[in-house]
C-alpha cells in the first residue's frame, strides 16, 4: 500500500449558468500570451454539443486515453512506445488548428485612423496566426446555448446511435453546461505518451504538470490526452496545460476558475488513494465497473489504518485533517453524488461532476406537474431515458443506473428540504427511498447549497510556505534575483542563471498582512481626519 | 609541405567548428533549456508535413548511418572481413544515393511548405533561414558529389582521403594533405558541413540530441516531488527546507 494525496475538484452542474467567467479569468491568468491564443485551460461547453476541440470525445478518431488489449492488459489507445517513436516526425493524431479554432483579433486601429468618410469605419477581424483578414467561423464555444444545434449538435460523438431520439427544436430539447479543466488523472495518458518524460505527476498533491525545460515539443501528449487538455504552444514549441493553479493552491487558496465561479459550483479538496492499486483499477475489464473501481481507489481519510499508512508515506498531519474535511471526498464517496468524466478512458480522472437534475425538472415543470415533488421526479427520472442516457455516456461509460441513483438523491434532497423550508413535517420516506438518512440528506443540502468559502475549498497549504513567505522579507540584496546584477550562487555564471523567470506568485496571505500593516489606504478615507491609522503606543 | 590555405581549411576550420559545436551545445543546454525544442509547425499545416517530414527525417538518419560507416570504419577493416572496395562502393553508393534522394525530396517538400503556407512562413525566423541554406546546401553538395562522381564511371575512393583525414583530426594528428588531395566536390561538401556544425548549437537543430530513446525503457507515469520552494524559485541560501 502506497498512499498518495491528490488535489481534486467537484463541479455541481446544476448550478452552472454557462457564464464563462471561469474560462475568461483562467485565460487572463494563464493563456493571454501569443502562441496560446487558441488555448483555454478551462472551457465551458454546451451539451449536447461538439465540445472544444470539436468532437474531442470521438476516440475512434483521436485515439486518446487507454484501452485494454486482447490479453486484458492496459495499453495506450494511440499505440505503444515503439509506435510513438516511429511516428514522432509527424504525429498522425494531432488536432489541427481548425479543430480548435483560428484565433483572431480586430483591426481596432482602423476605427481611429480611418480617413473622414461617409460610412463609419469597421474593425475587421484579423487572424492571429497569419495576420491576414479572416472570417470568423468557429470558436471555443461557437455552439454555446445550442446555437446552430440542428446542424452542429448532431456531430456530438455521444449522440451516436440516439441522434434521431434527441430533438433539437427549441422547445423540446434539453441542455446543460459542462465546464472542463485538466482532469489531473491518477493514470494520466498524456504523461505516459510523452517521449521526453517531461509531463509528471507531483507526488505531494497529484497535480500533473509539464516541465517546460524538458519538453521537446513532440506533441504526443496532445494526442494521448482523451480530454484534449494538453495544448501545443506554437510560439515556444512546448506543450502547456492547466496547472491546477499550483502557485495559488500551494498557499492554500483555490484555483482561479473556482475562486471566480459565479455559481460557486466548484469544490476543491484532497482525496487519498492507494497508488499501488491504480493500474489494477484502470484495468477493470468491464467499462461499467470502472466507476466503482475509481470510487474504491479513494480511501476513507477517517479510517485509522489509512491515516497510519498515510503518515508513514510522509503525508503531513494537517493534510490528513484536510482530507478528512474534504468536500470532494464527501461528494464522491460519502454522498456518492459526484461522477467522473468519461471513466471509460481509463485515466482515472480527478475532476468529478454532480450531474444536472435540471433537464428532468424542466420537463416535469413544463408538463404542468409539481417539479419539486419526489414521486413525480422519481417517475420522471425513470421515464426520461434520453437525458439520463446522455448523462450516462458522459459520466458512467453508458451505464444509466449510477446516474439514476444520483439524480434520485438530488430529487429527494429537493423534495425533503422543501418540506422543511415550508415548516411541514419532513417526510422520512424520501431519504429512505434513496438509501440515506434525513440527516445525511440535510448535510448534502448544506454542502450543495449553503457551504461557505472555507467549506467549499479545503486546501491545506504546501509545506514550503515558510520559505516562500520569507522570500519577500528584506533580508537580502534586492538586486539578488535571477539575471539581476546582484545575482549570487555557486555556478560559474551564478547558480540560477539561465533558469525560467519566476511566476509572479501573489501570496494572498502576505498581501493581506501587508495591507493590514502600516499601509495608507485612501480608498475608504472620507477626507476627514488622519488617513494614517494611529499606531499603538509602545 | 602543406600550404597555409590547406592548414586553414582542413585543420583550423574543423577544430574551431568542433569546439564551437561542443561548447555551444553545453552552453545552450545550460542556458536555454526552454528554447531546446523541435518547434513543430504541425499545428499550422499537416498535409505536406505528413509527407515531407518523415521522408526527410528517416532519410537523413540513414545518411548519418552511412557517414558513420564511411568515415569511422577504416577500409582495411572491411577488407579484412572480405568486402572488396568495389562491392563496398556499390552498396554504399546505391543506399547512399537512395537515402540522399529521400532526404532531399523531403527537404524540398518542407522548404516549399515553409515558403508557401502563410502561418508556417511567418513563424520562420532568420535563424531558421540560415539553417535551411546550410543544411540543404550541405545535402545538395554531398549528394551531387556522389551522383556526379559515379556518373564518371570512376568514382573517387573517399575512404583513402576524406575518411583517414577525418579520423586524423581525432587522433590530434591532422593530415590536411589527404583532404587537399580529394576532389573539389568533397572539399566543398566538407567545408559546408563544418559551417553547419558550427551553426548547429545555435539553431533548432539541437533537437537532434533529444531523440527520446529513454522512452522505450522508462515507466509510463513519471512522479516527481514538488521542488523545495513554492512557485519556481530556488530557496535562498540559508532558507532550505528541513527534511
From TrEMBL, chain A:
Q: Which UniProt keywords apply?
A: 4Fe-4S, Electron transport, Iron, Iron-sulfur, Metal-binding, Repeat, Transport
In this chain, composition skew of type Low complexity spans 493-502
Bias category Gly residues: which stretches?
483-492
Would the keyword DNA damage turn up in this protein's UniProt record? no
Residues annotated as region Disordered?
483-503
This protein's cofactor list reads: [4Fe-4S] cluster; [3Fe-4S] cluster
- GO MF terms, alphabetically ordered: 4 iron, 4 sulfur cluster binding; electron transfer activity; metal ion binding; nitrate reductase activity
Which segments constitute the 4Fe-4S ferredoxin-type domain?
Answer: 7-35, 173-204, 206-235
Q: Which GO terms describe its biological process?
A: anaerobic respiration; nitrate metabolic process
Q: Name one Pfam family in it.
A: Fer4_11
The keyword Nucleotide-binding is assigned to this record: no
**Entry GO CC:** cell envelope; membrane; nitrate reductase complex
Q: Which Gene3D superfamilies does this UniProt record tie to the protein?
A: 3.30.70.20, nitrate reductase domain like
Localization of this protein = Cell envelope
Q: Which InterPro entries match?
A: 4Fe4S_Fe-S-bd, Nitr_red_bet_C, Nitr_red_bet_C_sf, NO3_Rdtase_bsu
Tell me where on the tree of life, at the top rank, the source sits.
Answer: Bacteria
- The protein here is known as Nitrate reductase subunit beta
Amino acid at each position: 500500500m502506497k498512499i498518495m494525496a491528490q488535489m481534486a475538484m467537484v463541479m455541481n452542474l446544476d448550478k452552472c449558468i454557462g457564464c464563462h467567467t471561469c474560462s475568461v479569468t483562467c485565460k487572463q491568468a494563464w493563456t493571454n500570451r501569443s502562441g496560446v491564443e487558441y488555448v483555454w485551460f478551462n472551457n465551458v461547453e454546451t451539451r449536447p454539443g461538439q465540445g472544444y476541440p470539436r468532437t474531442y470525445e470521438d476516440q475512434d478518431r483521436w485515439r486518446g486515453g487507454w484501452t485494454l488489449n486482447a490479453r486484458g492488459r492496459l495499453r495506450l489507445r494511440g499505440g505503444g512506445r515503439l509506435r510513438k517513436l516511429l511516428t514522432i516526425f509527424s504525429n498522425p493524431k494531432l488536432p489541427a488548428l481548425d479543430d480548435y479554432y483560428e484565433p483572431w483579433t480586430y483591426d481596432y486601429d482602423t476605427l481611429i485612423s480611418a480617413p473622414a468618410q461617409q460610412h463609419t469605419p469597421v474593425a475587421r477581424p484579423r487572424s492571429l496566426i497569419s495576420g491576414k483578414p479572416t472570417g470568423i467561423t468557429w470558436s471555443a464555444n461557437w455552439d454555446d446555448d445550442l446555437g446552430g444545434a440542428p446542424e452542429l449538435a448532431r456531430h456530438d460523438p455521444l449522440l451516436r446511435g440516439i441522434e434521431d431520439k434527441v430533438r433539437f427544436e427549441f422547445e423540446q430539447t434539453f441542455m446543460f453546461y459542462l465546464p472542463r479543466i485538466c482532469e489531473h488523472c491518477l493514470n494520466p495518458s498524456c504523461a505516459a505518451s510523452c517521449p521526453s518524460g517531461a509531463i509528471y505527476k507531483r507526488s505531494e498533491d497529484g497535480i500533473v504538470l509539464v516541465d517546460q525545460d524538458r519538453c521537446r515539443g513532440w506533441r504526443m501528449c496532445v494526442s494521448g490526452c482523451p480530454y484534449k487538455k494538453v495544448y501545443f504552444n506554437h510560439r515556444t514549441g512546448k506543450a502547456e496545460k492547466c496547472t491546477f493553479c499550483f502557485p495559488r493552491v500551494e498557499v492554500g487558496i483555490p484555483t482561479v476558475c473556482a475562486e471566480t465561479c459565479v455559481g460557486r459550483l466548484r469544490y476543491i479538496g484532497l482525496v487519498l488513494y492507494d497508488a499501488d492499486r491504480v493500474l489494477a483499477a484502470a484495468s477493470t475489464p468491464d467499462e461499467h465497473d470502472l466507476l466503482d473501481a475509481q470510487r474504491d481507489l479513494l480511501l476513507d481519510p477517517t479510517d485509522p489504518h489509512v491515516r497510519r499508512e498515510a503518515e508513514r508515506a510522509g503525508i503531513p498531519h494537517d493534510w490528513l485533517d484536510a482530507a478528512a474535511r474534504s468536500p470532494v471526498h464527501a461528494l464522491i464517496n460519502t454522498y456518492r453524488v459526484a461522477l467522473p468524466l468519461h471513466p471509460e478512458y481509463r485515466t482515472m480522472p480527478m475532476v468529478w461532476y454532480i450531474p444536472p437534475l435540471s433537464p428532468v425538472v424542466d420537463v416535469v415543470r413544463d408538463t404542468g406537474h409539481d417539479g419539486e415533488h419526489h414521486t413525480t421526479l422519481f417517475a420522471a427520472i425513470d421515464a426520461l431515458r434520453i437525458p439520463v442516457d446522455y448523462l450516462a455516456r458522459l459520466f458512467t461509460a453508458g451505464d444509466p443506473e449510477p446516474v439514476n441513483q444520483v439524480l434520485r438523491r438530488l430529487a429527494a434532497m429537493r423534495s425533503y428540504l422543501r418540506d422543511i423550508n415550508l415548516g411541514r413535517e419532513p417526510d422520512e420516506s424520501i431519504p429512505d427511498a434513496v438509501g440515506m438518512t434525513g440527516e445525511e440528506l440535510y448535510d448534502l443540502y448544506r454542502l450543495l447549497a449553503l457551504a461557505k468559502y472555507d467549506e467549499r475549498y479545503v486546501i491545506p497549504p504546501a509545506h514550503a510556505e515558510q520559505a516562500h513567505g520569507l522570500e519577500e522579507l528584506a533580508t537580502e540584496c534586492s538586486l539578488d534575483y535571477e539575471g539581476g546584477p546582484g545575482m549570487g550562487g555557486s555556478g560559474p555564471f551564478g547558480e540560477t542563471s539561465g533558469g525560467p523567470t519566476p511566476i509572479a506568485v501573489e501570496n494572498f496571505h502576505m498581501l493581506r498582512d501587508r495591507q493590514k500593516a502600516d499601509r495608507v489606504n485612501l480608498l475608504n478615507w472620507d477626507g476627514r481626519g488622519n488617513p494614517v491609522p494611529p499606531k499603538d503606543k509602545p | 609541405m602543406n600550404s597555409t590555405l590547406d592548414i586553414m581549411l582542413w585543420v583550423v576550420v574543423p577544430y574551431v567548428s568542433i569546439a564551437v559545436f561542443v561548447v555551444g551545445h553545453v552552453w545552450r543546454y545550460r542556458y536555454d533549456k526552454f528554447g531546446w525544442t523541435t518547434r513543430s509547425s504541425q499545428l499550422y499545416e499537416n498535409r505536406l508535413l505528413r509527407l515531407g517530414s518523415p521522408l526527410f527525417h528517416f532519410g537523413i538518419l540513414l545518411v548519418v548511418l552511412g557517414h558513420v560507416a564511411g568515415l569511422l570504419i577504416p577500409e582495411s577493416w572491411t577488407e579484412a572481413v572480405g568486402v572488396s572496395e568495389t562491392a563496398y562502393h556499390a552498396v554504399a553508393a546505391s543506399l547512399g544515393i537512395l537515402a540522399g534522394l529521400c532526404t532531399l525530396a523531403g527537404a524540398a517538400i518542407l522548404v516549399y511548405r515553409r515558403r508557401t503556407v502563410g502561418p508556417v512562413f511567418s513563424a520562420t525566423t532568420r535563424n531558421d533561414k540560415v539553417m535551411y541554406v546550410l543544411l540543404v546546401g550541405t545535402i545538395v553538395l554531398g549528394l551531387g558529389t556522389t551522383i556526379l562522381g559515379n556518373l564518371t564511371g570512376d568514382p573517387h575512393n573517399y575512404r583513402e582521403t576524406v575518411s583517414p583525414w577525418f579520423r586524423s583530426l581525432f587522433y590530434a594528428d591532422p593530415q590536411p594533405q589527404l583532404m587537399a588531395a580529394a576532389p573539389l566536390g568533397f572539399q566543398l561538401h566538407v567545408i559546408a558541413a563544418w559551417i553547419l556544425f558550427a551553426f548547429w548549437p545555435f539553431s533548432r537543430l539541437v533537437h537532434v540530441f533529444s531523440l527520446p530513446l529513454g522512452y522505450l525503457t522508462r515507466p509510463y507515469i513519471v512522479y516527481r516531488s514538488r521542488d523545495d520552494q513554492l512557485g519556481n524559485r530556488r530557496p535562498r541560501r540559508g532558507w532550505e527546507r528541513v527534511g
